[in-house]
Design brief:
This protein has about 475 residues and is an alpha/beta fold. The chain is about 45% helix and about 10% strand. Belongs to the histidine acid phosphatase family. MINPP1 subfamily.
Length: about 475
C-alpha cells in the first residue's frame, strides 16, 4: 500500500511539472454544465425543473385529477456494456502510459493533473454483472421517491398520503426497473412501498410498450446507413471530434467503440452518484460533449421524435388514455404509469411538445444549439410527464389543465402561459382521440382497439350518470 501511494505521489509531482495551466480541468470545474447534456442517460437531479412553485397555483381553480407517465429511474448498463467495461482498465493504463512513458501528452487541451490522477485510480465495480443488467440503482429508486414527494408537496389534495385502490391506479411494465420505480414512487407517497398495488400487466402491453408489437416502428431507418444519424457520424465535424478526443488522451488513433464506452460509463457513473463525478467524463471537453449529444439527439429525433411524421401518431393509446382518464368525473383520480424512454418520447411527440421549426439534420449542427428537441432535458433517467386537471367554477372555462415535464410547466403556443383550457385540449387532440389506434400507425390486433374503445365508452357512460345526478 505504501509503495502504491509513493508511486502515485511521484506521478502526481511529475505530471504537475509538465501540465498546462490553461487546460480545461473537469475535476476543478464547479459547474460541469456538460453533465446536463448526457441525452437519455442524464441524471434527473441535474436537469429537473426548479420553478414549479411558480407554476402550479392557478387562481380561482382547484386541482382535481392527475395523469402521470414516468420513465424509470437511473439503471445499470446493458449486458454488452457490462461485458465491455473491463476494457476501461486497459484504456486507463494506456492513457497513463501515454502521459508518463511515451510522452504523447498534447500541447493543448491535455488532461489536467487532477483528471489524470483520478483516471489512474479508477476501478470498475465488479459487482455489476450481467445477471443484474438494466436493474434500477439505489439512486434510481430515490429519483422516483423524490418525484412523488415533490408532486405531493405541491398537490397534497390530489395526492393524499393514504392509499386507496379506487382513487389511485398504478401500472408498470414487466421489467425490474419499472417495478422498482413504482415501489419508490409509492414509498414517496405513502411512506411504505408495500401499501400500494399495481394493476395487472397484460400479455400484450400495447399501452406502455407499443413498440414491442409494431414492426413498422422498429423497422424504420433512424440510425442505419443513409440516416441523418449516420451522416453526422461520418461528417468532418464528427471525425475531427473523434481525433481530438484521442489526442487529448495521448493517442494517435483511438477506436470509436472505446470512445463510446468511455462516454457511456461517464454518463452512467455520473447518474449513479449525482453528488460525485465520474473520472471518465474528464476525457471529453465540453464542446466535444456538444457533438456527442447532438448525435444522440439525431438518433432519438428520428427514432421517437419528429424526424418521421408518422412518429406523431405512434403513441395513440397513451394520449387516448390521458384524455379519457382526465375527462371522466369518477375515479381513479390519479393514474401513474411507469415505463421507458421510447414511450415518454413518443408521447411528447404525439402531443407536439418541444417541436422545432427546423428539423434536426446532420448538416445543420451549428444552427441548432438552441433546439427544443434535446433528449437530455426531455427524457433523462426518471423523466416524467404530468397532466394536472383543474376545476374552475367561477371561470368561463370551467376545466383547465397544466402539463409538467420534469417539474417544468410545458409552454404550448395555444395555451395561456402554460395554462390550457380543457376544451382546447380536446379539440387539439381530437383526431388522435377519435382514431382507431390499431390502424392509426400499425395494426396490433383487435383486442387493443377494444380496450381503448371500452375505456372511452366507460368514460362517456360515467359522465352521463354523473350529470344525471
Amino acid at each position: 500500500m505504501r509503495l502504491l501511494l509513493l508511486t502515485a505521489l511521484l506521478a502526481f509531482l511529475e505530471w504537475g511539472q509538465v501540465r498546462g495551466e490553461d487546460d480545461y480541468c473537469f475535476g476543478k470545474d464547479a459547474e460541469r454544465l456538460q453533465t446536463r447534456q448526457f441525452s437519455s442517460k442524464t441524471a434527473y437531479q441535474i436537469v429537473k425543473g426548479t420553478n414549479i412553485d411558480k407554476q402550479y397555483q392557478v387562481p380561482n381553480c382547484e386541482p382535481k385529477k392527475m395523469w402521470i407517465f414516468h420513465r424509470h429511474g437511473t439503471r445499470l448498463p446493458t449486458p454488452s456494456t457490462i461485458e465491455e467495461a473491463p476494457r476501461l482498465g486497459e484504456l486507463r493504463d494506456l492513457i497513463v502510459k501515454n502521459y508518463r512513458v511515451l510522452r504523447t501528452k498534447p500541447d493543448t487541451d491535455a488532461l489536467c493533473l487532477d483528471d489524470l490522477f483520478a483516471i489512474q485510480m479508477w476501478k470498475w465495480n465488479t459487482s455489476i454483472t450481467v445477471d443484474i443488467e438494466e436493474h434500477l440503482t439505489s439512486q434510481g429508486y430515490e429519483d422516483l421517491r423524490g418525484t412523488a414527494k415533490l408532486y405531493q408537496h405541491y398537490f397534497p389534495n390530489v395526492l393524499p398520503n393514504k392509499y386507496n385502490s379506487t382513487y389511485y391506479l398504478f401500472r408498470h411494465t414487466n421489467t425490474q426497473r419499472t417495478t422498482e420505480s413504482f415501489k419508490g414512487f409509492a414509498e414517496g407517497l405513502f411512506g411504505d412501498s408495500q401499501l400500494a398495488l399495481a394493476a395487472e400487466i397484460p400479455e400484450q402491453d400495447l399501452l406502455l410498450r407499443p413498440y414491442d408489437y409494431c414492426a413498422d416502428f422498429k423497422g424504420k431507418n433512424y440510425k442505419g446507413e443513409g440516416s441523418e444519424y449516420q451522416k453526422f457520424r461520418t461528417s468532418t465535424l464528427w471525425n475531427q471530434t473523434m481525433a481530438d478526443i484521442a489526442k487529448r488522451l495521448g493517442f494517435t488513433v483511438l477506436a470509436e467503440d472505446d470512445i463510446k464506452l468511455m462516454f457511456d460509463i461517464c454518463r452512467y457513473e455520473q447518474a449513479w452518484q449525482v453528488d460525485r463525478t465520474s473520472v471518465w467524463c474528464a476525457a471529453f471537453l465540453p464542446q466535444q460533449v456538444d457533438v456527442l449529444e447532438y448525435a444522440e439527439d439525431l438518433k432519438y429525433y428520428y427514432g421517437s421524435g419528429y424526424g418521421f411524421e408518422e412518429n406523431t401518431r405512434f403513441n395513440c393509446r397513451a394520449v387516448q388514455d390521458m384524455l379519457a382518464r382526465l375527462s371522466s368525473p369518477v375515479s381513479p383520480h390519479v393514474v401513474a404509469y411507469f415505463a421507458h424512454s421510447s414511450g415518454l418520447q413518443t408521447l411528447l411527440t404525439a402531443l407536439g411538445i418541444n417541436k422545432d421549426d427546423v428539423p434536426l439534420r446532420a448538416d445543420n449542427y451549428d444552427s441548432m444549439a438552441s433546439r427544443r428537441w434535446r433528449t437530455s432535458l426531455l427524457g433523462p433517467f426518471a423523466g416524467n410527464f404530468v397532466a394536472v386537471k383543474y376545476d374552475c367554477p367561477s371561470e368561463v372555462e370551467k376545466e383547465k389543465v397544466v402539463f409538467f415535464l420534469n417539474q417544468n410547466g410545458v409552454q404550448l403556443d395555444w395555451c395561456n402561459v402554460g395554462l390550457c383550457n380543457w376544451s382546447d385540449v380536446l379539440q387539439r387532440y381530437k383526431t388522435i382521440a377519435e382514431a382507431n389506434c390499431d390502424e392509426y400507425y400499425c395494426r396490433s390486433g383487435a383486442n387493443a382497439g377494444q380496450t381503448v374503445t371500452s375505456l372511452l365508452a366507460t368514460t362517456l357512460l360515467a359522465a352521463i350518470v354523473y350529470l344525471m345526478h
